[in-house]
Design brief:
Distance between the termini: 77 Å
Oligomer: single chain
Strand order of the largest sheet: 2-8-7-6-5-3-4
Low-confidence stretches: none
Mean pLDDT: 94
Number of domains: 2
Radius of gyration: 25 Å
CATH topology of the largest domain: Aspartate Aminotransferase, domain 2
CATH architecture of the largest domain: 3-Layer(aba) Sandwich
Helix content: 40-55%
Strand content: 5-15%
CATH class of the largest domain: Alpha Beta
Order of helices and strands: HHHHEHHHEHHEHEHEHEEHEHHEEHEEH
Number of strands: 12
Length: 501
């Protein structure tokens, strides 16, 4: 053990690169230089460079961190251009129509820059102060959009999976406490919980099953319910499934309805399902990660009337409100239900210091440290406005319909559905070819060939074990001419493949 007299201080080292009052002009220079490189990324002609996996892995030495050396910002920017920006996927490109990745709005980027630079941690009042009020205002706004009652509340999350996780956790713990007097948060697992069952459509997001497993309930706790030809949950089949589980001695605790399925954009009949949930006295959660923000539109708000009866709702702003990831929210009908996830730590948010005027948002969140993600949405709503955002969503919906009508009678395509949101599922089908294995191969070939060329990115999915392609349209600047170019590429690759095979 060294004594105080034996302790010696190391020589002071220069403290560079920290953001503070001393470095504000250097900060400005850094940002300006980075912007120039981002502008070059925006000018890329293709959505992707087309670089092979092997060529990208050849950058491993340049990506590697060398503990003994450091380089200048200019060198680092040149490196990141070569190894990342030149090959990054451009979600804003009109030929990127694969996944639920939207282009982002400029005001959102301003909010993101401010949030990152100030580095507000939003979990407690003494770390965020007015930042807490801004998040609460955004939550109040979206609760009102969803027609939830005044006692409703919510919290920003990392995405739909986390929001759905919190919904299932609260649904499980609330049912256990209300019906059996079991406090799972305090005492842990109970035999009754192994019989709990959750119902969702067979087109629901995979996170329902994943989260049931993470909660210790297992995949088997989730009962998939058959959908109709419009990919919506069949309510009569839902009732039958609930009754069947009860007859088997299991315990229905929740229904998860989907407002905008990932593949088809389909809306389950929310109002009817809410009545079924009320009849059985079980939790009603709506996964509106994709379609929830369509409540801002004239075209779809009628499909979301059932949100008024939800116990909880998932919303993803980074899917359909043009926000940089992450920007999502979990909403709940009654703020009192957050007691199932709250914890009071002496060093952070002691219970005796709880103050409604200075709330600690950690009491509502699964996360502890959180970014100030609400700020970018605040900027967006202030600068762009709600009506304009709604018009963007309507535009991509009408684009999906136009694409549907363009190819539905084309002999080279088989269309799976009429779009309800902004996705279109279809497959290339060579006239006269009925071999599904061959059609699966050609559609995967089309997808992979277009991606590897950097010319277009489309997604794939399966219906009844058959491979289909998918347009996911989230860019209001994409035109039908852009889609016609992609459709032409699909036809060309499909014909070439079937001709040569």
């Amino acid at each position: 053990m060294l004594s105080d007299s034996q302790l010696t201080l190391k020589p002071s080292l220069a403290v560079d690169h920290l953001l503070d009052a001393h470095s504000k002009y250097e900060y400005e220079e850094y940002i300006q230089k980075a912007v120039e490189y981002i502008k070059s990324f925006l000018d890329n002609d293709s959505f992707y460079s087309g670089a092979s996996t092997e060529s990208l892995r050849a950058y491993n030495d340049r990506i590697a961190i060398q503990s003994e050396t450091n380089i200048s910002l200019d060198q680092a920017l040149r490196e990141i251009k070569d190894v990342f920006l030149d090959h990054a996927i451009s979600f804003h490109h009109p030929h990127y129509v694969a996944h639920l990745n939207c282009p982002v709005l400029l005001p959102a980027l301003v909010g993101d820059l401010i949030a990152s630079s100030v580095n507000t941690a939003i979990e407690t009042w003494d770390q965020s102060t007015s930042g807490t009020l801004i998040e609460q205002e955004i939550i109040r706004w979206i609760c009102d959009v969803m027609n939830l009652p005044p006692e409703s509340d919510g919290v920003f999350t990392s995405g739909g999976t986390q929001s759905n996780f919190e919904a299932l956790l609260i649904a499980r713990d609330h049912y256990a406490f209300t019906h059996y007097g079991i406090n799972l948060k305090e005492n842990g697992w109970s035999d009754e919980v192994s019989k709990f069952r959750i119902f969702c459509s067979d087109k629901a997001h995979f996170s329902v099953k994943k989260n049931a497993a993470l909660l210790g309930m297992g995949y088997g706790a989730v009962i998939p319910v058959e959908t109709d030809d419009k990919m919506k949950m069949k309510v009569d089949t839902l009732v039958q499934a609930i009754e069947k589980e009860k007859q088997q001695g299991n315990i229905p605790i929740a229904i998860v309805a989907t407002a905008g399925t990932t593949d088809f954009g389909s809306f389950d009949p929310l109002e009817i399902i809410s009545k079924i949930a009320k009849e059985y006295n079980i939790w009603f959660h709506i996964d509106g990660a994709y379609g929830g923000c369509y409540a801002l539109t004239d075209t779809h708000k009628h499909l979301l009337k059932g949100t008024a009866y939800a116990d909880s709702i998932t919303i993803d702003f980074h899917k359909t409100l043009f926000q940089p990831v992450c920007s999502s929210a979990f909403l709940i009908r009654d703020a009192a239900y957050f007691k199932y996830v709250s914890y009071y730590a002496d060093y952070l948010n002691p219970l005796e210091n709880r103050n409604e005027q200075q709330p600690n948002l950690i009491e509502k969140s699964i996360q502890t440290t959180r970014r100030f993600d609400a700020l970018k949405l605040w900027f967006t709503l202030k600068v762009v406005g709600v009506k304009t955002l709604g018009s963007f969503l309507e535009k991509v919906h009408y684009l999906a319909l136009e694409a549907y009508y363009t190819i539905k009678d084309d002999i080279y395509f088989e269309v799976a559905h009429k779009p309800e949101l902004s996705t279109l599922v279809f497959r290339f089908k060579t006239p006269g070819v009925i071999n599904d294995n061959l059609l699966d191969q050609v559609n995967l070939h089309i997808k992979n060939t277009l991606f590897n060329s950097g010319k277009a990115s489309v997604a794939s999915t399966k219906i009844n074990d058959k491979t289909y392609l998918k347009f996911t349209l989230l860019n209001p600047r994409t035109t039908m001419d852009d889609l016609l170019q992609v459709i032409t590429m699909i036809k060309k690759q499909g014909v070439l493949y079937t001709t040569n095979n």
